[in-house]
Structure formats: C-alpha cells, structure tokens
Amino acid sequence: MNSSEQLFQRAQQLIPGGVNSPVRAFRSVGGAPFFTKRANGAHLTTSDDVELIDFVCTWGPAVHGHNDPNIREAIATALNDGTSFGTPNPYEVEMAARLVEIVPSVEKVRMCNSGTEATMSAIRLARGYTGRNKIIKFAGCYHGHVDSLLVKAGSGALTLGNPDSAGIPASFAAETIVIDYNDAEGVREAFANGGDDIAAIIVEPYPANCGMILPDAGYLELLRKLCTRNQSLLIFDEVMTGFRLALGGVQERVGITPDLTALGKIIGGGLPVGAFGGKAEIMDYLAPLGPVYQAGTLSGNPLAMAAGIASLKKLKDTNPYPLFEKMGAQIRDALLEAAREKGLALQVPQVGSMFALFFAEKPVRNLDDATSSQTEHFNQLFKYALDHGVYLPPSAYETCFISTAHDGADIEQAAEVLAAGIRSI
Ligand code: KE4
To answer: What pLDDT sits at residue 51?
Structure first.
C-alpha cells in the first residue's frame, strides 16, 4: 500500500469515513482520497509525492494559492504575541473595518469560526429582528450544516444523496420553505401565501454547491423587491463568492444590497473564519446589545484575523479580477471546444475564477437540471484529470476555483489535460 492508502486505512478506523468533511471522501467519484502533505501556490503534493495542479483551493480560501508568503508572514508576526486571548484584540477591529469598507451591505459585522456559523447566526438574527419564523431557501443551495438549512441542500449532502439529512426534526424543516432557484412564480406564491411569517430569504446569489448556476435576468432583483415589500430580510450567502467574484462579492457585481451577508473562506486566509454583517440597525439586535444571542470562544482569533487581513489586503492591492476572468474563460473555452469536437453535450458556467462542468444539453437553471446531467461523464473526467496531475473537486456538484498562483503554464497544462480527458470519454 502507498502512503495515502495506509493513512486512509488508519483514518477510517478513527474518523467516520476517514474524513473530517464528507465531500473529501471521493464517495461519488469512486476510489480513495489522496492525502496531502504540502501545498504551495497552485500545487498540492500528496503524501506519495505526487504533484497536482489544484482547482479546489481548499474549497475557496486559497484565492492567492497555498502557503502565500504574505499570509504566512502575517500569521508568524501575530504568533509572536500568542494564539488566542479571549478578549478583544486590535486585529478584529482592522478586519471589521476592512469588511465594512469592502462589502456594500455591511455597516457592522460579527466574526465567527465557519461559514456554517455565519449562516446559522444570520438566520437566527433575521428571526429575532423580524419576530417571524419561516425561512426561504433554494433547492441545491448549501449554507453549511445548519439544521434548518439542511433541507434540499447541495454540496456534500447532495453528493452523498442525503440532501435532507437525518437528525433534523420535521418541526425544524417545517419552518423552511424550499423553492427551485430561478423559479420566480414560486417565490411570489410563497410571499402571497405566508409573507407575514417569512423572516428571510437566504440565497447563494450564484449557487455553487450543485455545480454552478447563474440567475435568470432580474431574478436577484425580484428577491430584493419581494423582501423589501414584505419586510422580510434578504440574506446573501457569499461564503464562497465573497471577495472572489469581485472584491465586494456578487452584491458588488450586480448592484444589489442584501440586508445581511454571510462570509467566510477567503477572510480566514486558510484558517477557520466566518463572519456575518449587514445594516447596523439589524446587527445591533445581537448580544450584548440586543436579544439575539450569538457567541464563540475563538471568534476574532488574532492569527485567523491576521491571515484574513493579509488576504484581503493582497486582493485590494493586486486587483486580480481581470486576470481571473481571462484564466476562467481560457479553461472554459478549451473544455467547450473539446466537447464540440467529441460531440458531447457540455455546459461550463464560468464567472471569473469559478467554473463548473455539467454534461448536459442545455444550460442548468436549477437543481433538477443539475441532477439530470451526466454525472458519470464528470466522474470519468475527474479520474482522467487526477491521473494526469490535475485535481478537480471530487463531486459533480461542486465548483472549481482558480487562484492568482495558477500561472499561465498551469492553466495551459490543465486546459490540455481536461480537453484530452473529455476526448477520452
Ligand atoms: P463551512 O461551515 O464549511 O466553513 O461553510 C459552509 C458554507 C456556507 N455557505 C456556502 C455557500 C458554502 O459553500 C459553504 C461550504 N462550502 C463547501 C464546499 N462546497 C465546503 C466543503 C466541505 O463541506 O468540506
């Protein structure tokens, strides 16, 4: 057995499925996961010294690539003064100031430790602020493993075929209204039937946990209008898209201001961080000022704040977004060209540094379209790519990420491998 196989065998005796997060288990693409011992720039080195061009980027945080020198230096500097204080610290203030400056909807922000905590807290705040119970979410969107949101959820839940997780009381799920993404009539009806008890809509503005889906023209504007008209809150879950699709996220790209925004991934620079923010009037409902309780031992951790500040500073200083558009389009076009030559139906939704692959005849507009795509073709491509040094997310229901560390050679090599992989299907 090679090193990864030995490690996986041992891990499975100690950790459920041998992984600390289900989507890492390769269950839908087959085979066993490799173990990573080092990561630098756009590359992972497995415990068997295989080097891979990485398009998972630790599921989004590594927007500057792995082991970024500026982030390392920021962590090392903070580390000199200790790892956690349990009191307010200067880094938290700088992080909050940067988020307020960068994210259009954020007047005040609260740090937490994961995207799940961010969405869970935003939901609780919306309910506490409005005094209402119902939440609207969209089928296939994934907002972390929050009880009330693990209903028709995407990402690992969808990958493993349990979008409605066990362990969620029916009474909890009953407070969640699930609508198809891009279904305008469905949202209008939900408000017409029960708008006075709808606390909020939570949405990934560009869903990226069932592959990547883009909104119909006017759809996000409709969500904003219906929430405003019904005094419900609009929550953008930008844990994945924040700082990646624009410095201010999708809300900056589309010019729509949600009432609350959930954030994470990039703002931790690779360390565990989440955040949620929005209008000061709403945020001030949080303890210790208001009646909505929310807390966290390591929230605002100095090391994580220092890493996130360095990551945000670098994004602001380097403005990588035009480069992301160029690299994303280069891979997209290579994939589409190869599929055309092969006579395979392929959709490659791509925005900046995010892209996904659906082997489907027509553009994917919702979860049903996504699950009707030929996922076995994706799985074949995944395996071919991995065998040829390119690591895609191990599920057809995830999205690929590019970092500023993916240089021209990485993109050209990956485009060639993926095109050859498509031709091999
Ligand atoms: P975390 O709790 O995993 O930090 O964030 C949850 C979350 C919330 N909102 C969105 C839009 C997300 O994409 C996520 C987490 N993303 C997945 C990848 N699709 C994390 C990977 C994993 O579960 O291991």
So the answer is: 98
Query: Which three-class secondary structure state does DSSP give residue 251?
Result: helix
d(CA 72, CA 66) in angstroms, rounded, equals 10
**Residue 1: is its pLDDT beyond 90?**
no
Number of domains forming the structure of the chain = 2
What Rg, from alpha-carbon coordinates, does the chain have? 21
Q: At what angle do helices 69-79 and 302-318 cross, to 10 degrees?
A: 150
Q: Are residues 171 and 284 in the same domain?
A: yes
Domain termination site, one of 269, 289, 317: 317
Half-sphere exposure of 164 (CA within 13 A, CB side): 11
Q: How far is CA 11 from CA 3, 17, 254, 333, 378, in A?
A: 12, 8, 44, 39, 27
Centroid of ligand 1 to alpha carbon of 34 (angstroms): 20
Residue range 180-227, pLDDT digits in tens: 999 999 999 999 998 799 999 999 999 999 999 999 999 999 999 999
Task: From the candidates 237, 259, 369, 410, give the one annotated as an active-site residue.
Answer: 237
Reduce the DSSP state of residue 357 to 3 states and report it: coil
Alpha carbon distances (Å) from 283 to 61, 126, 238: 25, 9, 17
Is 142 part of the annotated catalytic residue set?
yes
Cβ of 205 less than 6 Å from ligand 1: no
pLDDT of residue 132: 98
